[in-house]
Amino acid sequence: GAGVSQSPSNKVTEKGKDVELRCDPISGHTALYWYRQSLGQGLEFLIYFQGNSAPDKSGLPSDRFSAERTGGSVSTLTIQRTQQEDSAVYLCASSLEGLAYYEQYFGPGTRLTVT
Amino acid sequence: RKEVEQDPGPFNVPEGATVAFNCTYSNSASQSFFWYRQDCRKEPKLLMSVYSSGNEDGRFTAQLNRASQYISLLIRDSKLSDSATYLCVVTGSGNTGKLIFGQGTTLQVKP
């Protein structure tokens, strides 16, 4: 079946612009996660949605970052007033449920470059 | 101190070698543990979960020592296709799926 898809695959933007990154999880998966991977850094948790519960936003690095998940499916990560340090690969993952022992399936990521 | 620490390597080994990776984690409340594999410029994929009793999947053996907060991965009879970055991953407090990743250990298997 279809895996997690993300768009765009690459995004180049100028410092100060807003960007939106999209994630389509695997159909039927109730949990959706956003991570980012910067050069020389490990994967860093950003935000997590589980069903209709309030999202866990504890990993968002600043209030310029926000995310929403509409209809329990597609999610959009928005970065406002982008900075050069926001350059990274943004990865989305989904799992059947939001519990630790459910395997997370990752999308191919969006490579964001802020110039 | 990072929550999950790994030796970044690279580990350069010949085909057929046995290689071991280790990692330590700082949160004693972590409940679930994993090894993920990430190929160059690709997304991470689950390699195996790690259980306290130790577990094996073919050439791969994972061990967990909760008292020492230490996780290991052993790869026997290395193949060229094992070349990748291996990520040690733990969950945060509680049993949610929020994953905390180590920086990864790079393995290069040479003919």
* Rg for CA atoms of chain B: 13 Å
- Sum up the overall morphology of chain B in one term: globular
Shape of chain A from CA axes? globular
Q: Which spans of chain B have pLDDT < 50 for at least 5 consecutive residues?
A: none
Give the beta-strand count of chain B.
11
Task: Report on the biggest sheet of chain B.
Answer: 6 strands, mixed
What is the terminal separation of chain A in angstroms?
37 Å
Report on the architecture of this protein.
The complex is a heterodimer of chains A (115) and B (111). Chain A has 115 residues and is mainly beta. Helix content of chain A is 0%, strand content 46%. In chain A, strands 2, 4, 5, 8, 9 and 10 form a 6-stranded mixed sheet that branches. In chain A, a hairpin with a 5-residue loop joins strand 4 (31-37) and strand 5. Chain B has 111 residues and is mainly beta. Chain B has no helices and 11 strands. In chain B, the strands form 2 sheets. In chain B, strands 2, 4, 5, 9, 10 and 11 form a 6-stranded mixed sheet that branches. In chain B, a hairpin with a 4-residue loop joins strand 7 (60-65) and strand 8 (70-75). Chain B is globular, with a radius of gyration of 13 Å.
Notable characteristics:
heterodimer, A: 115 residues, mainly beta, six-stranded mixed β-sheet, globular, B: 111 residues, five-stranded antiparallel β-sheet, 11 strands, 0% helix, 52% strand
